[in-house]
């Protein structure tokens, strides 16, 4: 790596567990809804995030290593809390590292787009996904026509013999990984190419005990003693939680809604729960049927000097 690129990384350090408290305190100062800001996701998903503190704002960068090409630097989020001068410094760092006039912000919440309009530069936005957001208190009662499908599926699974819902335990790792692998085999006929559990989901199952239960907890559903559904969730920031990972054996119709219902009961002290986006029509239908209170947009933003 040449001297200019090395200099552009000056003052940055690798993002890790020791940054948890700093990151959570910074996140509490903003009202972003994007699920990608969930610390366990960032920790389990990326090995190449960099962090710094500039004038009281926490700044997160993503250094993407690319095969047979130079690495590329992104500003992952807007500074926390938002500071326009700090943002300009971050964008200039990205331009210097990449040797280009274009700086890319990897994830921007839809309500933050307007904060970029005063930069005096060419700003281009590209939609990434619509995230499904729920009010967990809505599931205290399943009465009403809008919740008919959830109510029906919860009753169906409850009425089966040998059903047990309990907290995830370390001894469940092998059973959960087996479920995820079996899920992939069943699902692969629906989609082109190979379907596999995401790496960060596997790492979450294997390493969830790194976090306090408030920040990451798991539930499993057993049928006749075998794990048939697993989910993990936790706090993003005060008032907002993330329903992070859910896997269910689709041979048991309605099981994922049953799991969703129980996770929502565990998260009912939060105002909102973000359940991420939907990458397939089937997943979109499933998340719509759970009655979101809003669909939240996230964007990739190019800032051209």
UniProtKB/TrEMBL annotation:
<dbReference type="Pfam" id="PF09924">
    <property type="entry name" value="LPG_synthase_C"/>
</dbReference>
<feature type="domain" description="Phosphatidylglycerol lysyltransferase C-terminal">
    <location>
        <begin position="84"/>
        <end position="286"/>
    </location>
</feature>
<protein>
    <recommendedName>
        <fullName>Phosphatidylglycerol lysyltransferase C-terminal domain-containing protein</fullName>
    </recommendedName>
</protein>
<dbReference type="InterPro" id="IPR016181">
    <property type="entry name" value="Acyl_CoA_acyltransferase"/>
</dbReference>
<dbReference type="InterPro" id="IPR024320">
    <property type="entry name" value="LPG_synthase_C"/>
</dbReference>
<dbReference type="InterPro" id="IPR016732">
    <property type="entry name" value="UCP018688"/>
</dbReference>
């Amino acid at each position: 790596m040449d001297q200019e690129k090395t200099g552009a990384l000056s003052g940055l350090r690798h993002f890790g567990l020791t940054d948890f408290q700093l990151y959570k305190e910074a996140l509490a100062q903003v009202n972003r809804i994007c699920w990608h800001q969930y610390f366990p996701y960032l920790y389990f998903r990326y090995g190449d995030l960099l962090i710094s503190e500039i004038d009281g704002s926490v700044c997160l960068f993503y250094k993407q290593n690319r095969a047979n090409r130079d690495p590329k630097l992104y500003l992952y989020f807007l500074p926390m809390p938002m500071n326009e001068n700090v943002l300009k410094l971050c964008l200039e760092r990205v331009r210097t590292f990449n040797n280009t006039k274009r700086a890319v912000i990897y994830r921007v919440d839809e309500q933050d787009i307007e904060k970029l309009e005063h930069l005096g530069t060419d700003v281009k936005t590209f939609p990434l996904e619509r995230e499904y957001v729920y009010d967990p208190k809505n599931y205290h009662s399943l009465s009403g026509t809008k919740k008919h499908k959830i109510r029906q599926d919860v009753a169906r699974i409850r009425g089966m013999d040998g059903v047990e819902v309990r907290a995830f335990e370390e001894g469940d790792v092998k059973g959960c990984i087996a479920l995820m692998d079996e899920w992939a085999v069943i699902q692969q006929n629906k989609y082109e190419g190979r379907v596999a559990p995401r790496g960060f989901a596997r790492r979450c199952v294997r390493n969830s005990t790194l976090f306090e239960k408030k920040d990451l907890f798991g539930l499993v559903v057993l049928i006749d003693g075998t794990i048939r559904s697993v989910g993990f969730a936790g706090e993003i920031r005060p008032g907002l939680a993330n329903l992070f990972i859910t896997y269910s054996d689709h041979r048991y119709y309605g099981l994922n809604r049953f799991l969703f219902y129980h996770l929502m009961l565990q998260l009912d002290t939060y105002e909102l729960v973000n359940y991420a986006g939907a990458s397939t029509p089937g997943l979109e239908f499933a998340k719509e049927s759970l009655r979101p209170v809003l669909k939240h947009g996230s964007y990739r933003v190019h800032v051209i000097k």
